[in-house]
Amino acid sequence: MDDYETPLLSKDSSSSSSVITSSLKWILKVVMSMIFVTWVVFLMMMYPEQLGDDFLTFVSSKTFLGTTGTMFLIFSCPILVISVLASLYLIISGEDKVFTEKKISNFPRFRLWTFPVLVDGPFGVVSAAEFLGIMVFSVFFLWSIYAYTLRNLDLLERFHVLPKNRSILLLEVTGLRLGMIGLLCMVFLFLPISRGSILLRLIDIPFEHATRYHVWLGHITMAFFSLHGLCYVVGWIIQGQLLELIFSWNAIGIAILPGVISLVAGLLMWVTSLHTVRKNYFELFFYTHQLYIVFIVFLALHVGDYMFSIVAGGIFLFILDRFLRFCQSRRTVDVISAKSLPCGTLELVLSKPPNMRYNALSFIFLQVRELSWLQWHPFSVSSSPLDGNHHVAVLIKVLGGWTAKLRDQLSNLYEAENQDQLISPQSYPKITTCVEGPYGHESPYHLAYENLVLVAGGIGITPFFAILSDILHRKRDGKACLPSKVLVVWAIKNSDELSLLSAIDIPSICPFFSKKLNLEIHIYVTRQSEPRLEDGMVHKVMHPSVKLPRTNGCSMSVLVGTGDNIWSGLYLIISTIGFISMITLLDIFYIKRYNITTWWYKGLLFVGCMVASVLIFGGLVVVFWHRWGKQTGEVEANGNDKVDLNGEETHNPSAAELKGLAIEEDVQSYTTIRYGTRPNFREIFESLNGKWGSVDVGVIVCGPATLQTTVAKEIRSHSIWRSANHPLFHFNSHSFDL
């Protein structure tokens, strides 16, 4: 963290700023960093060499761990230990964190995570930190191939084989090495895809951003696994034993048929996850990706517990996250109200417990059972955590079949309410929703900048409503809030989308907001050359709203990995201890006692222990976590404000607020609408030089990839050629590509 930027502080400033707390956090950071660096160096640099094998042989021969225990200790334990330490770090850091206005430097600083280095190419917009990661993995691939090639040639020299068998042996050992590189890549494969991952929370990377790392690693992993299988198939064809060997299932050593099944499942996931297929046939991609269960289980049967323990750590953390998501998503959630805007966008207000915490820029996964029991769709949260304790609002643009069905269902509800067709509860149209999340950044990073530029395209304005509401609430209530200047740049196709502005009522949130916040909203209507007659009053129109009848559902479940730090930490720690205990007891009292030597069976037992430990030990924590959430939610709900028909919590304004509302400021005076043009970001950023001076500027972009690339290009160009008196822009993207 930069020295001009203050640490995140909890509500109890005396305890979070204490020397003891700071020292503990520093110690945990150092320990986690040392473990991670040592682990990565061994994994990527030492293990491909003969030195790595010699070290593993030495440890397994000199300790009671054995071969499987040594592999698990070296490859999987470090990531589990880091996860446990990360949970302790977050518990010490506290629940509610804000940025204060102290220690602001007069000179902007370079940040690895927010400076775009690559903006064109297959990786999209890549920050400096991501570029370093790509370079590290590239060096690892080249080094591994080089080291394994030398070992293969040395192996051929050591064993005197006939010339006709030399090519076959070379193919098989090359396939073995390629498979090992694939396994080493798979160590990291499941870490970014865990939505509530404690590791992602530690480094403050939200799931929707980390998904791209999973995509990159998935392509690389499957490429090496495919070459692994191809080498063996070619060798077997040369020997004339393809059908005989490909269906073999050995008890001792590698079981080939399970490997074939695992590879086929992986190839199906890989092909259907290509961008073109995923974009045009998302359901095919989604359903095919459920083959990950087949891929993992048969991989364990293929390589046995010995080799599977290399990738067990990341898979175990994924299973933990998946089980918690399953528990949360079983609850049906009440829809408090629903609204349809003139542009066709839908607004749903969902019930949430008062003790559920989240940040602006969060998102949820939503399921509507009347439409599909299998489809889950991500939507950005448009409400601020400070809007109220009992609700979360989302805006949904009708773009495809699922959203069109949801719009039709809401239309039926509206017609039934207005025509008084409620004969019985069974005949009334219903919307049964289930929710996963909210997920997002661990810290409210939009509060880390004195100046903000929010760039949106179309429905991408949704998360910025949450940011604006959060800032305005903090300004009104006198809470710590660093931003003092906010520029919103919003590009839309048609003026119909202007009605989205009605989702936030700025003057009612913060009367006289212009005295506390310098807010400018620049709107670009790209497909209209002039305004329509009704554009001036478009966000004053009242939209049909329907209050849904209460079902057997309730508010959202608190069982989310990004929720309470203490409970999520206990869930991880107890499940991990239970897992290690189970495999240790299984090895002592069953495998060794009964001399179990079958590789595939031991691999199956290993996977069984992983799942059983999550169900038993993690399930026990989930039960108590659920009871705690229910009890504390009821306590916090007593005396709190309730939610009205529009999904807004009632608020008793003070005399000053009433006075402010009497002479309400017109937000249109701060809004500039330009027709028939697109935003010129070079001009926009250059115009900020004189206005904002030499400060850090946070630029958050939410929109299509082309918009992100355009903004990132200008930020990089401006940062390279900037003078000492110009601001330094920091690029942050917020979008989904699931």
Task: Describe this protein with a few key phrases.
738 residues; alpha/beta; six-stranded parallel β-sheet; four-stranded antiparallel β-sheet; 52% helix; globular
Helix content: 40-55%
Task: Find the count of extended strands (DSSP E, 2+ residues).
Answer: 16
Q: For the record, give the distance between the C-alpha atoms at the N and C termini, rounded to a whole number.
A: 30 Å
Mean pLDDT: 82
Arrangement of strands in the largest sheet: 14-12-11-10-15-16
Low-confidence stretches: 1-13, 100-107, 537-542, 650-664, 720-726
Residues in β-strands, percent: 5-15%
Gross morphology = globular
Count of DSSP H/I helices? 22
Largest sheet: 6 strands, parallel
Structural class label: alpha/beta
Nearest-angstrom radius of gyration? 28 Å
Characterize this entry briefly.
This protein has helices at 13-16, 19-46, 50-62, 66-93, 128-158, 163-189, 198-203, 207-239, 242-246, 256-272, 275-280, 282-288, 292-308, 312-329, 401-418, 462-477, 506-509, 565-591, 599-637, 655-662, 681-692, 705-721, and strands at residues 116-118, 126-127, 332-333, 335-340, 346-351, 363-368, 377-380, 391-396, 433-439, 451-457, 485-492, 518-525, 545-547, 671-675, 696-702, 728-733. By secondary structure, the protein is α/β, with parallel strands linked by helices.
